[in-house]
Structure formats: C-alpha cells, structure tokens
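WARN retry 2 of 3 for item q-0093 after timeout on previous attempt; input resubmitted unchanged.
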Amino acid sequence: HFIFAGIQTGGELLGFQMGFTMVSLVDPLSGARVSITSHLLYMVSLLTFLTLDGHLHLLRALAESFTLLPPGGLTMRGNLVDNVLSLSGGMFVLAVKIAAPVMAAIFMVELALALMARAAPQMNLLTLGFPIKIAVGFFFLGLLFTVLSLRMEDTIIELAPMFSNLMRMGR
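OK item q-0093 returned
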C-alpha cells in the first residue's frame, strides 16, 4: 500500500502543478477526493502491478506469513517499527521521484511564460498559459509511464525479500 500511496501522492503533486486542483474524483477505496492525475497514475500502476504478476507475489507472501507468524503472534518491536517507518518515508521519496521530471518541465514552461510576460506585457498569457501547461504536463506524464513500469518491476522483485524480512522481525 505504501507504493501505491506514494504514486498517488506524486499524482497529487502533478495535478496541482498542472492546474487540476478543481478537477477531482472520489476514491472508492478511501472515500477521499483525489485529483484526476493521481487516479490515472494509480490505475496505471495497479494495472502494471497486475500485469507483472505482483498479485501472485502478494498471495505467496500471505501463505508464507502463516508459517512464519502464527495468527496473533505479531509483536511490534523496535526493529519492525523502524522498518515500517522507513517504508512510509520511502513513500514520500517515491512521490517526489515520480513527480520531479514533470514538475521540472512545467517549471520551465512557467519560466518561459514569465519571460514572455516581461517582454510583452500587453499579451494575455493567462489564457495561453493553462493549455500549454496542461499539454506539456500530459506529454511528460505519458513519458513517465515507462519510468513507472520500470519502478513497479523493481518493486515486485524486492517484494518477497521485504515481506520475509518484515515477518521475521515481527516474531
């Protein structure tokens, strides 16, 4: 869940930068309002996760959890708490890694618009700026899908050792 929450947080950052703060959906899982870019990134990452057989790794880890940890045998010790906290901190790092390339491109568009406004103040750049930011944002969002699929593949590879390590810490 930390991975998908990090992707959704990155999508929220992108939606804010692209100007989609008023466009939002209701997430059926949490009931909270999320931006359209956040929901798009979440759906693409979920489909990538399912395509790369991540759900099979989760089911295998669930079956293995009953052999490593009997029901009711989980104890929250210092190492386990530290590991879960580092995973939750990694969620924000993932959000910034996902949003950074698109945010940098949108910042360059903002900078170009600011220079144009300074050079030609009589031009109405507000009506020109929003469509350009949205077009550049969606272009780089399309390029981001390849990076997202590679990041999801790396995550699935690291999933089995991470689960077994967490369950051994919970004994």
